[in-house]
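FORM 7B - TANDEM STRUCTURE REPORT

SECTION 1: FIRST PROTEIN
SEQUENCE AND TOKENS:
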Amino acid sequence: MSHNKLLAIEKPVRYTGDEIGTRPKEGAELRFVLAFPDVYEVGMSHLGFQILYDILNGEEGIAAERVYTPWPDREAQLRSLGEPLATLESHTPLARADIIGFTLQYELSYTNILTMLDLAGIPFRAADRGNEFPMVIAGGPCACNPEPLADFLDAVLLGDGEEAVVEIAAACRERKRNGETKQWLLERLADIAGVYVPSFFETRYNGDDTIDAITPLRPGYDRVRRRFLSNLDTAPYPTAPVVPFLKTIHDRVSIEIGRGCTRGCRFCQAGYLYRPVRERSPETILRLVEETLRNTGYDEVSLLSLSTGDYGCLTPLLRELMVRYAHEKIAVALPSLRVGSLSQELVEEIRKVRKTGFTLAPEAGSERLRQIINKGISEEDLLRNAFEAFSSGWRVIKLYFMIGLPGETDEDLLGIADLARKVKLEGKRAGGGEVNVSVSTFVPKPHTPFQWEPQITTEETVAKQRFLRDELKKRKLTLKWHDAPLSFMEGVFARGDRRLGAVLAKAWKLGCRFDGWGDRLNSTAWREAFSACGMDPAFYHRRRGLDEVLPWDHLDFGVTRSFLRQELEKAWAGEATGDCRTGRCTGCGICDFDRIAMRTTDPAWQKSGTSPTMAPPAAADAKVTMRLRYTKTDAMRYLSHLEMIGLFTRAVGRARLPIRFSQGFHPHPKFSFATALSVGVESWAEYLDMELVPGPTPEEVQHRLNAALPQGMRIIEAVVVPPGTQSLSVLMDKVRYRITLPEKAASNLSARAEAFLTRDSFPLRREKKGRVQEYDLRHELAGLTVDGPTLELTIGRGKPLEYAAAITGLSPEELADARIEKLDVLFKKSLISPIQGTCNGQ
């Protein structure tokens, strides 16, 4: 396929690969494809994906490669070209891989799995895939109930994957070396702790569609217990992760400081799935942060945990991070702070570089409902935390609540509005601040005390949203909510059984894709799919009997059924369950107090020794402006101007250049580009000015940046420009391009060029974002030559493709396969000359 075809789709850089940190391997014995069933930007933000990529590629003979769901425009393009879905690293078609591992992060991504299998030419159903097809497995949070996907998956990994994924890969290698069958491999996988093989179980139903029994078909394989990673501190972690060119959902260094949570919130599935608490030591965290920052060039570190504020020695750790990195303008974000765990000292540390997002999650609007869900926070804690944040300069706080919680009344909804208003008053008391209120609909998830509770209907959800919106409007507050149809479908597949596989396949055939994207959920098609399969989706939202067989009962995630029932009883009694981090063991059944046990850090930890030496602060006016000329070729031509800014920001960080920053709460590195190059145009003459603290020579800057830039970008020259030099945009006069036309478009090119030169005028009118631009292409043309199918032109204003269309008389669509190269920039001779040279693109 011509690479220019990518110009016909949105965000072509999603599909190019070759990012910093990729690890392609030729001739690997086993090709393990990590597949994320959502768009690239979402998948690249998933930390677990990066961890497995690093672990597998660290194994000799194993190549881990990535693939994401193509956006509908790319899907249509692949189908029209008859090309299979392939990996980013080696462009290997998925059907030629040995194993494909899907990440089940969200229930509404399931149709995307079918899209990816279909584009790969792989049969949907595991029973239809013979020995010639790759194994299709899955893991992730939604693996706690993979039954809706049971027909499509050969195996599922339950729980932590760091160790198990290597064992799975080893079993696949053994099969490949010895020429064993798929059935042999399934038997082998079932012997690995944490691996669930759906075909080794059979589900029988009663006449009322409830489950009669889940029967094991393999002796001794009655229940599958999740895999536990006993020690997070010694677990492998990617300090040189793949750094995307595209801005992703979480565009920063992510460090998992702890796994698991001891709070026991009864609504929180993750709190039960990831027990027990295992924390990384602060020494390990500091090492991982340092290595990852230097390998990626990011300017923000996110400390991840289900409840980061509960980390044993968070304040001294954060203080040490600020000592090390504040002078480099590297910010620290704490995305999961629990109300009550925030101290004034923490707030002061966070704000030292820039104010990252600030979200507080009361979850419920009344103390009574927070007792039911065991949230364990007070209104006083919330208001205190809000005042501290507003007083420290935050202007906006986001409050997160749920509607539809068990036992909720209209008074609880009014409580949300009143609590939000009180928080806003705290902002007023602190000198000004706004509050954004966000609500989602509660879905009773498997393996939680509320797994037996019903989910409210779509109509109830909409009514509650309207009621809450009106109440907040009275208090001059606005509301954002999770769309009711999305929550409805999430509840169906989170609580569903194997019969949903037929519905899923039918919905996919009716065109369902990217269902988790609110504007793409096709509720009409889903209703048709359920109807065609003779099923009522609301069946899965009903209250479950306490003795009923649940679809996930044969999957053991450690917390006992008796404990969950006990917690449900305590919820309705309004009784609290304490935090086993600070109190007695609650008896949930997870720990064996040997290999599986809570591992926390010492709250009294203090950094031993001295911190890394920091560069002395430069005088406020000490600066040097470096002017760079660089290339932008091959896959780099698909980067937009915004993506180029991000790429250079990270490259400067990896190169350890002493860049100067703008002032204010959100400092940015001070560099400026000459122009914004059109996506798809290759260039041998791009220019950039950057402000540095005096020190490195131009040669050092060139060398260090080239070591940090991806293939297709090279600094050709670097010079220091004297103070007072005009900006690049002022200095630029003309640009020289070379356009190599497709064979059909190059017919009689010389005559057409001569005819264009004889014209007195060729006016052009262009509209963009409501603004009209008018100029004359003939007047802006300063030079034109023809050599075979190639045009070489020197122009002022205008785009090279516009000139090619004007000269040839062809439409831009007919010129879509033209190769456009920017060869040189001509500068005004009357002004101070910047770097200037001629490059023929050789």
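SECTION 2: SECOND PROTEIN
SEQUENCE AND TOKENS:
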Amino acid sequence: MSHAPQPLGAPVVRREGRDKVTGAARYAAERNLPGCLYAWPVPATVPRGRVTAIRTADALSLPGVRAVLTHENAPRTEEPDDPILAVLQNDHVPHRGWQIAVVVADTLEAAQAGAEALHITYETAPHDVVLTGDHAGLYTPQTANGGYPAVRERGDFDSAFAAAPVQVDVTYTIGPLHNHPMEPHSSTAQWSTDGRLTVYDSSQGATKVRDSLATVFGVRPDQVTVVSRHVGGGFGSKGTPRPQAVLAAMAALHTGHPVELAVPRRHMATVVGHRAPTVQRVRLGARTDGVLTSVAHEVITHTSTVKEFVEQAAVPARVMYGSAHSRTVHRVTALDVPSPSWMRAPGEAPGMYALESAVDELALALGLDPVELRLRNDPAAEPDSAKPFSSRNLAACLRDGAARFGWDDRDPRPGVRREGPLLLGTGVAAATYPVYASASHASAHAAPDGSYRIAVNATDIGTGARTVLAQIAASVLKTPVDNVTVDIGDSDLPDAPLAGGSSGTASWGWSVHKAATALVERLGASSGPLPAAGVTVTADTTEETAAESPYARHAFGAHFAEAAVDSRTGEVRVRRMLGVFAAGHILNARTARSQFIGGMTMGLGMALTEGSTMDPAFGDFAESDLASYHVPACADATGLEAHWIDEDDPHLNPMGSKGIGEIGIVGAAAAIGNAVHHATGVRLRTLPLTPDRLLPHLT
């Protein structure tokens, strides 16, 4: 037990850790409600068309099968706020894997058997699922994800680039990527006799799920409760409501029983989002001293015919490097593919891979050290908006990282360092991620026994939210952190935004800080003992978060990597990775280091192992499970170190914090790719850098 307040930033142990390792923490598909039935979703097996018939007799005759819901008998729903939630409402099949039925049974095995016993016929239509750089359907949208303008131009890029004495003009491609959290997307739904809906959902934001379900089922939000107390990862894919919550609620309404639906792993690639593929052309023009005169980043990507989602991969180029002449463009085409969505630093992760790889190519063309090139182009104000940075310590990250990594001992020549058959190289890349904060509500309660309780509908997706929110409250209340209870993960608690965009702690923490501050003032203004019920105050940060800042607010970082490439097999092993980050005030050193290293590991996967292949004939992702979609194992992620520069930035929030959940992945893949080039002298511009792609260039 803590006997004295600990400073904010202390490495406090995560308070739910023991519950997770002992199995006491319960997830969405572990509710064991009395009378619960089990549902198995049925995906379409054609890439485009419509369902002409679903014969259910054989399925319904199986022991334990209670119901089969299709577009013909499923409950009618209202138009949702997200088109992917309009399931079982018509016979249309917009892409392979679109859910066209759900089987409900006494056991999961019976539900799966019932799904296999369905007889489904289709009328198919021609489909188009392959993104190309010259696709006839390409268009320029109004905005990209996040509301960013799709096109931004400064100066006269074409003239400046043509006049630049040193030029780089390169194109990078990244295929589709999938989130694949350890816990599949799951929901357990139950309707009460008075028409109230309760859903236990694997979600990054229970408030948003509640509101979406209320819209779909035509009820008031206060008639819906969504509980997401423990979530086994999300990485963006659980940031918006997913169809399994609607299907489970439909099945519960139809059968009158609680219904549990866990999306089978092999179905997830088509129904929970993915990072859309990108074709990215980067052009850099520079003077002979390395100062950039022109920057262009033009992105081509895909969306679905269901809804528009445009990966904002060109946006980081508006932040990173100054130049008087700039062009950043997004173009997109709607294909017969599953709807892409958020995934692990959407926009920044693929965009910074292309930009930071191109900067490395420019350094080689100039004969200039890659760290020095970045330092020479570190702007004093945000290039796109001309706003001053609230803090920008990219240069400090680069210098500190170079010193820790031993960068100055590097031989700059590619392909010269060897250990027997191994080719060795080192690479560097910069990173940036915007600072976000959304309106949040929280309450703070003081009990007569001297303890405190914080309530806010935050979501802990494995990051330690409970712990850091307790630390924020304890720092204001001047009490030991163990004296503060934190209640999260329930939409009946004060409304709060989702865990996404590296904004969770900033958003929730701001409202917790405000509520705790108001509680201190309330207690200080009264005398005598507290009433038996205690004292509760509430806080709302709508006004504060809506105010436009005069500052450009971003986190920054620098990644360094050492790679060994086996010249006989093409296998790449990352021997060590170092990340140095500038992300405001770090609120918990222990959980922050874990998040940074986790992000770096994701970047390693993006660089070397992860990739989904679209089958053009079947319209299907070939890699649909963790046996074929390769995420890094412990043996792959060795020698990872994370450090930070603790910034004093008063222009953020009361805690002085920036988001850290996604800055760790941004730039990591580029650092590894640059290290592979330095090791081999080979520049591959398509991820992942798998042996089959490298080996032909090494023999």
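SECTION 3: OBSERVATIONS ON SECOND PROTEIN
Residues 504-524 form the longest helix (21 residues).
The chain has a mean pLDDT of 97.

SECTION 4: SIGNATURE
Preparer initials: ____
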